[in-house]
Amino acid sequence: MRFKKLIGLLIAIMTACGIFAHPKAAVLAAAPRPAQNKAAQVEFITAEQLKAKIAAKEPVMIVDLRGQSAYDASDQTVKGSLHTKVRKVAYRLRELPRDREIVTYCSCPADEAAIIGAQNLLAKGFTRVRVLKGGWNAWLQAGGQVEPKPRL
Question: Which of 76, 82, 122, 133 could form a disulfide with 146 if both were Cys (CB 3.0 to 4.6 A apart)?
Answer without folding.
Answer: 76
